[in-house]
Amino acid sequence: MKKTLLLVGTLLGMSGTGCGAPEDVSPESDASPIEFDALDSQAVSAAALTTTGCTQLTARSVISNGHDGNVPANTMDSNLGTRWSRLGKGSWIDYDLGSIQKVSGVSVAWHEGNTRANDFSVSVSPDGYTYTQVYSGKSSGKTTAAETYSFSTINTRRVRVTFQGNNLNEWASIAEARACSSTSSTVPPTDPTPEPNPDPEQPQPGNGASVVWVGDFETNSRSQWSSTQMVSADRLALVSSPARQGRYALKATVRKGDDPINASGNRNELVRMTREATGSEYYYRFSTMFDSSFPSAKTWQLFTQWHHEGNSGSPPVEFYVYGEEIRLNIGGNPGTIVWRTPLVRGRWLDFIFHVKWSPDSKVGFVELYLDGKVVMPKRFIATQYKGQLNYLKVGLYRNDTVSPVGIVYHDGWTMARKLEDVISPTTVLKAP
């Protein structure tokens, strides 16, 4: 018996991510859905042989944004000898589970996966229109067998795998793929291999640990930071509530006229002279809460920035609020807004910011996690100005036209070389 599901493939192919730029959709989109015969027990058994650490969910149809004659249905035929292929970064293949189901990962057998390490992301959608990225990573490049990639369980109907390139070419090519209701991940989401750090002024990991600096206020002081720029101590106060991790957090307050360094804007900020070396790569964990009274203003209100060593001009990396949006801007003024999300007040937001520092846009990159999920996949972009290192500033710095009092809470600041050391927003870590 054949099970049929009617889909308007062209509309599904036009879907975009929940935040930022829409998914890449090719004019040669393979819009028509492919139907599958109901799997009999023999086929289910065969499919199980192609997945590891994955309790399979059966897709009812599949679409892609193109193919070279190797059609997307080949990834559901339980045959590692067939495949879906399409040339180009941004190629995607999209599975419809037929109804909303709990999904916690995908299992993918990459064509020639023993020679190609594939960069890719996974996005999910309840309706085929609004997609949210839940995973970004790389295949091992060591096997043609299926590898399972885990993420936090989410209710979804559609699961999309988007190809971002591999170490040999730009061919997206998948032999088999399944969504998983439960998983045991066989490949980590990122490559945590640390890079050498040639800068003697840069903090070094102690005893082989990944963590290189902690600024989480657990000293009940500002001693973990290099200096302050504040008009008075109450503007950068240590508080026991609210706290995201441990016992203490920072309460940063700015009132109109606060100008401790006789410069533009109003501010009260902590400074950490991180001075990350060109070519170095780090993960930064931090949690931020905007007070329920935080003002809405159609102008900039920075709460985290990596400032260049020069004294003038906009910083190369800045997190700020504009109106009712939180934004990440790279490259100064005007720079590039690489990510944005609606402003949320009265709730801790847990960030992990993954950066490779370089003035070369082909070397430097940024990647962002929010509340445990990848919200901005790795994007290559210049993260330093040529000849200048950066340093970290945290607190609140805003346009001096803003009148109402602004309050932002910060907690959990940690700088590390490996994702696993910063993945938990509530774990108290020790500095090396």
* Total beta strand runs: 24
- Approximate strand percentage: 35-45%
Largest sheet: 9 strands, mixed
User: Low-confidence stretches at least 5 residues in length (pLDDT < 50)?
Assistant: 1-49, 190-208
- H and E string: HEHEEEEEEEEEEEEEEEEEEEEEEE
Structural class: mainly beta
Q: What features would you describe in this structure?
A:
With 432 residues, this protein is mostly beta strands. The chain has two helices and 24 strands. It has helices at residues 9-13, 41-48; strands spanning 16-17, 54-57, 61-64, 84-87, 92-110, 118-125, 130-138, 147-166, 171-183, 211-215, 227-229, 236-239, 249-254, 266-272, 281-290, 300-308, 317-322, 325-330, 336-342, 349-356, 365-370, 373-380, 390-398, 406-416. Strands 1, 2, 3, 4, 5, 6, 7, 8 and 9 form a nine-stranded mixed sheet that branches. Strand 16 (300-308) and strand 17 form a beta hairpin. The chain is elongated, with a radius of gyration of 23 Å. Residues 1-49 and 190-208 have low confidence and may be disordered.
Please give a handful of descriptors for the protein shown.
elongated, 3% helix, nine-stranded mixed β-sheet, disordered N terminus, 432 residues, Jelly Rolls, single chain, mainly beta, 2 domains, eight-stranded antiparallel β-sheet, 2 helices
